[in-house]
Specification:
33% of the residues lie in helices and 19% in strands. The protein is α+β, with helices and mostly antiparallel strands. Keywords: FAD, Flavoprotein, Oxidoreductase.
């Protein structure tokens, strides 16, 4: 695969020993890793098709250490790549040969829980699921639940604006984060938001959530926790056609019903998941919907009837309703395990992430089938049907010459298709390096320049996670240039600041 990254700075690499000594003075003990064998676990994130060993790894334990590391690197022109648990699927934590990789895995304490305020204050290395585990005794939970929630960190969730099966009703990470502490590239420590709702002024918190490590390093997160609903029941609905399942999704949402979760799998994914977890998924259907409804018991009963009625209208051939909490959890166990389960179908797979309008779902799935035939590669579909967030899993064998390149080309065509259908390049995995060179498919040159100006406001030297998100990285001075024609400024009537 051909992936262009910023050209390594030979001068910085030549100072590697000096940099390691300086950073060991800030983070003593085992806080700096520089042995080649010990660097190997950090050479990629969850997008393992791209690999690059970092120059050094630094593992701070306090905000003060993060601030000092960033300030030193800023003063000495050394690039820094932040990393959480490394579960990112877009290459957002891909190291650089001339950069320090800043691992936040030691920030793993729950700092405060307030059930009265319904918040938890945690460090960024706390895993997503650990937040729910910390509050479930009192009947609370943290709503966003990515499939990797057992491993992914809340800091990484903030960087990527992660989602999950229950985000249809309860929102993505950005809807569940109230405040953060962050460190800028020059070492300055900032607090955005807090324990309260809707802070005044510019929405800098909203800007930081989903910024993919380009603007700052998060060292503390205040999240919203919710009381568990009185009742939660899930339906397994099988369809003989993918089109029927897609039409059912559109009508359920169009009728005003917002399920807690609404997931869809096609035949290859159904068979892989059932063989993996054996929860009783129907194997004689082409599409399976998992629809969860929660709230007061009477409301759930009514909405289940409505969803069943809509499903029958669109050709449902089987329906199964959970009768216990254990059965409901089993329904979701298959969906949560779908990604690893698909590993049974091929030696490798490439997990994509794009979003489309729900009504275009049948058309998009048909076009993906055509692309599968064109590239000669299988595809299994597992996705958040309720909000149109697709996760096609392209099956290939990296040991066969050319298959990895075909998988990449197939994935790029899927993402172009999402944009063509009125959707976007990503739903929750971020841009990273995977979608970086496709950004012009969605944004104009002017759009991208404005986005890079924000980057310049936070990191004028372009030292923090360079080579990600933007297909062409301009120097900040270039973005600040103004075109002057015949001695006349554009829009002379506007005041200049």
């Amino acid at each position: 695969m051909t992936l262009r990254m910023p050209e390594p700075d030979a001068g910085v690499i030549g100072r590697r020993a000096e940099i390691a000594r300086a950073l060991r003075a800030i983070v003593p003990g085992e806080g700096v890793i520089d042995h080649p064998d010990e660097l190997r676990p950090y050479e990629s994130d969850g997008l393992t098709a791209y690999r690059q060993a970092p120059m050094l790894v630094v593992l701070p334990e306090t905000t003060e250490q993060v601030s000092a590391v960033l300030a030193w690197c800023h003063a000495h022109g050394v690039k820094v790549v932040p990393r959480g648990s490394g579960t990112s699927l877009s290459g957002g934590a891909l190291p650089l040969a001339d950069a320090v990789l800043l691992g936040m895995g030691k920030f793993k304490r729950v700092l405060d829980i307030s059930y009265e305020d319904r918040i938890a204050v945690v460090q960024p290395g706390v895993t997503n699921l650990a937040i729910t585990r910390a509050v479930e005794e009192r009947g609370f939970y943290y709503a966003p639940d990515p499939s990797s929630q057992i491993a992914c960190s809340i800091g990484g969730n903030v960087a990527e604006n992660s989602g999950g099966v229950h985000c249809l009703k309860y929102g993505l990470t950005t809807n569940n984060v109230l405040g953060i502490e962050m460190v800028l590239m020059d070492g300055e420590v900032l607090r955005l938001g807090g324990r309260h709702l809707d802070p005044a002024g510019l929405d800098l918190l909203g800007l930081m959530v989903g910024s993919e490590g380009l603007l700052g390093v998060v060292t503390e997160v205040t999240v919203r926790i919710l009381p568990k609903p009185e009742t939660a029941r899930a339906l397994l609905i099988g369809f003989s056609t993918v089109v029927g399942a897609g039409e059912c999704v559109a009508e359920v949402i169009g009728s005003g019903i917002i399920p807690a979760g609404m997931e869809m799998m096609d035949r290859p994914a159904i068979h892989a998941a059932e063989a993996f977890v054996q929860v009783g998924y129907p194997l004689d259907v082409d599409a399976l919907l998992i629809v969860e409804l929660d709230g007061p018991s009477a409301e759930c009963d009514h909405l289940i009837e409505e969803v069943e009625r809509i499903a029958q209208k669109h050709g449902a051939v089987s329906t199964r309703i959970s009768r216990s909490e254990e059965e409901r959890a089993a329904f979701w166990a298959g969906r949560k395990a779908a990604f690893p389960a698909v590993g049974r179908l091929a030696p490798d797979y490439y997990c994509m992430d794009g979003t489309i309008p729900r009504r275009r779902l049948p058309e998009v799935l048909d076009r993906m089938r055509q692309l599968s035939e064109h590239y000669g590669l299988g595809v299994a579909n597992v996705f958040h049907a309720g909000d149109g967030n697709l996760h096609p899993l392209i099956l290939y064998d990296a040991n066969k010459p050319g298959e990895l390149d075909r998988a990449e080309a197939f994935g790029n065509d899927i993402l172009r298709l999402c944009v063509e259908m009125g959707g976007v390049l990503t739903g929750e995995h971020g841009v990273g390096v995977e979608k970086r060179d496709l950004m012009p498919e969605m944004y104009s040159e002017v759009d991208l320049a404005h986005q890079q100006r924000i980057k310049c406001a936070f990191d004028p030297e372009q030292l923090l996670n360079p080579g990600k998100v933007f297909p062409t990285l301009h120097r900040c001075a270039e973005l600040g240039r103004m075109h002057v024609h015949a001695g006349n400024l554009p829009f002379p009537e506007l005041p200049r600041f």
